[in-house]
Amino acid sequence: MSVAERLAELGVEVPSVVPPVAAYIPAKQHGDLIYTSGQLPMVQGSLPATGKVGEAEGLVSPADAKTYARQCALNALAAAAAVAGGVDKLTGVLKLTGFVASVPEFTGQPGVINGASEFLGEVFGDAGVHARSAVGVPVLPLDSPVEVEVVFTVA
Hints:
Layout: H1 3-10, E1 27-30, E2 33-36, H2 62-84, E3 90-101, H3 109-124, E4 131-137, E5 146-154
Parallel strand pairs: 3-4
Antiparallel strand pairs: 1-2, 2-5, 3-5
Protein backbone atom coordinates (compact mmCIF):
# COMPACT_ATOMS: atom_id res chain seq x y z
CA MET A 1 0.00 0.00 0.00
CA SER A 2 1.34 3.45 -0.89
CA VAL A 3 1.83 6.18 1.72
CA ALA A 4 -0.97 8.21 0.11
CA GLU A 5 -3.31 5.20 0.26
CA ARG A 6 -2.41 4.55 3.88
CA LEU A 7 -3.05 8.19 4.82
CA ALA A 8 -6.43 8.03 3.07
CA GLU A 9 -7.24 4.81 4.94
CA LEU A 10 -6.38 6.57 8.20
CA GLY A 11 -8.54 9.56 7.20
CA VAL A 12 -5.52 11.88 7.35
CA GLU A 13 -5.18 14.84 5.03
CA VAL A 14 -1.66 16.18 4.60
CA PRO A 15 -1.70 19.88 5.51
CA SER A 16 0.11 22.70 3.76
CA VAL A 17 3.72 23.14 4.81
CA VAL A 18 3.97 25.35 7.88
CA PRO A 19 5.90 28.49 6.92
CA PRO A 20 9.13 29.06 8.86
CA VAL A 21 8.95 31.40 11.86
CA ALA A 22 12.66 32.32 11.58
CA ALA A 23 15.67 31.97 9.24
CA TYR A 24 15.47 28.32 8.09
CA ILE A 25 13.69 26.09 5.60
CA PRO A 26 11.12 23.46 6.64
CA ALA A 27 13.05 20.52 5.15
CA LYS A 28 16.19 19.74 3.16
CA GLN A 29 17.22 16.70 1.16
CA HIS A 30 20.73 15.24 1.21
CA GLY A 31 21.12 12.10 -0.86
CA ASP A 32 18.38 9.66 0.07
CA LEU A 33 17.54 11.45 3.33
CA ILE A 34 15.26 14.39 4.06
CA TYR A 35 15.85 16.27 7.30
CA THR A 36 13.00 18.35 8.64
CA SER A 37 13.43 21.41 10.78
CA GLY A 38 11.70 21.27 14.13
CA GLN A 39 7.97 21.23 13.52
CA LEU A 40 5.47 22.72 15.94
CA PRO A 41 1.90 21.42 16.21
CA MET A 42 0.52 24.21 14.01
CA VAL A 43 -3.01 23.75 12.70
CA GLN A 44 -4.13 26.26 10.07
CA GLY A 45 -1.46 28.74 11.11
CA SER A 46 -1.78 28.66 14.87
CA LEU A 47 -0.84 26.57 17.87
CA PRO A 48 -3.70 24.58 19.44
CA ALA A 49 -2.20 25.23 22.91
CA THR A 50 0.75 26.91 24.57
CA GLY A 51 2.58 26.35 27.82
CA LYS A 52 4.33 23.63 29.76
CA VAL A 53 3.40 19.96 29.93
CA GLY A 54 2.72 18.41 33.33
CA GLU A 55 0.18 16.76 35.58
CA ALA A 56 -0.98 19.82 37.56
CA GLU A 57 -4.03 21.96 36.87
CA GLY A 58 -3.37 24.74 34.38
CA LEU A 59 -0.67 22.83 32.51
CA VAL A 60 -0.93 21.12 29.13
CA SER A 61 -1.91 17.53 29.90
CA PRO A 62 0.35 14.69 28.73
CA ALA A 63 -2.57 13.27 26.72
CA ASP A 64 -3.10 16.57 24.89
CA ALA A 65 0.65 16.96 24.37
CA LYS A 66 0.74 13.47 22.81
CA THR A 67 -1.92 14.60 20.33
CA TYR A 68 0.15 17.70 19.57
CA ALA A 69 3.24 15.54 18.98
CA ARG A 70 1.22 13.62 16.38
CA GLN A 71 0.39 16.93 14.68
CA CYS A 72 4.09 17.82 14.70
CA ALA A 73 4.85 14.54 12.91
CA LEU A 74 2.12 15.24 10.36
CA ASN A 75 3.61 18.68 9.74
CA ALA A 76 7.05 17.09 9.32
CA LEU A 77 5.57 14.64 6.83
CA ALA A 78 4.11 17.55 4.87
CA ALA A 79 7.46 19.38 4.84
CA ALA A 80 9.35 16.27 3.71
CA ALA A 81 6.78 15.43 1.04
CA ALA A 82 7.06 18.94 -0.40
CA VAL A 83 10.80 18.46 -0.85
CA ALA A 84 10.52 14.86 -2.09
CA GLY A 85 7.83 15.56 -4.68
CA GLY A 86 4.95 13.88 -2.85
CA VAL A 87 4.26 11.55 0.06
CA ASP A 88 4.75 8.45 -2.06
CA LYS A 89 8.41 9.38 -2.58
CA LEU A 90 8.96 8.97 1.17
CA THR A 91 10.01 5.40 1.98
CA GLY A 92 10.41 5.45 5.76
CA VAL A 93 11.63 7.10 8.93
CA LEU A 94 15.21 6.91 10.15
CA LYS A 95 15.27 9.16 13.24
CA LEU A 96 12.87 11.26 15.27
CA THR A 97 13.82 13.81 17.90
CA GLY A 98 11.09 15.20 20.12
CA PHE A 99 11.21 18.09 22.54
CA VAL A 100 8.67 18.60 25.32
CA ALA A 101 8.44 21.92 27.14
CA SER A 102 7.70 20.59 30.59
CA VAL A 103 7.79 21.46 34.24
CA PRO A 104 10.89 20.13 36.06
CA GLU A 105 9.07 17.32 37.88
CA PHE A 106 7.50 15.90 34.68
CA THR A 107 9.31 12.79 33.40
CA GLY A 108 6.80 11.53 30.84
CA GLN A 109 8.47 12.98 27.74
CA PRO A 110 8.76 9.56 26.04
CA GLY A 111 5.00 9.01 26.35
CA VAL A 112 4.29 12.41 24.85
CA ILE A 113 6.59 11.82 21.88
CA ASN A 114 4.93 8.44 21.33
CA GLY A 115 2.21 10.49 19.62
CA ALA A 116 4.64 11.24 16.79
CA SER A 117 6.27 7.80 16.74
CA GLU A 118 2.99 5.90 16.73
CA PHE A 119 1.60 8.06 13.91
CA LEU A 120 4.64 7.47 11.72
CA GLY A 121 4.43 3.76 12.47
CA GLU A 122 0.78 3.75 11.35
CA VAL A 123 1.72 5.50 8.12
CA PHE A 124 4.91 3.61 7.19
CA GLY A 125 4.48 0.25 8.92
CA ASP A 126 7.82 -1.49 9.49
CA ALA A 127 9.59 1.27 7.53
CA GLY A 128 8.35 3.71 10.17
CA VAL A 129 10.31 2.05 12.99
CA HIS A 130 12.99 4.58 13.93
CA ALA A 131 15.70 5.63 16.34
CA ARG A 132 14.47 8.34 18.71
CA SER A 133 15.21 10.86 21.42
CA ALA A 134 12.60 12.48 23.69
CA VAL A 135 13.95 15.48 25.56
CA GLY A 136 12.44 17.74 28.21
CA VAL A 137 13.23 21.43 27.79
CA PRO A 138 12.23 24.57 29.70
CA VAL A 139 10.69 26.42 26.73
CA LEU A 140 10.10 26.02 22.99
CA PRO A 141 9.49 28.55 20.21
CA LEU A 142 6.19 30.44 20.48
CA ASP A 143 5.67 28.73 23.87
CA SER A 144 4.72 25.51 22.07
CA PRO A 145 4.37 22.47 24.35
CA VAL A 146 6.08 20.15 21.82
CA GLU A 147 8.39 20.19 18.80
CA VAL A 148 9.44 17.28 16.58
CA GLU A 149 12.09 16.88 13.90
CA VAL A 150 12.28 13.84 11.65
CA VAL A 151 14.79 12.29 9.24
CA PHE A 152 12.90 10.51 6.43
CA THR A 153 14.28 8.14 3.82
CA VAL A 154 13.33 8.89 0.22
CA ALA A 155 13.29 6.95 -3.04
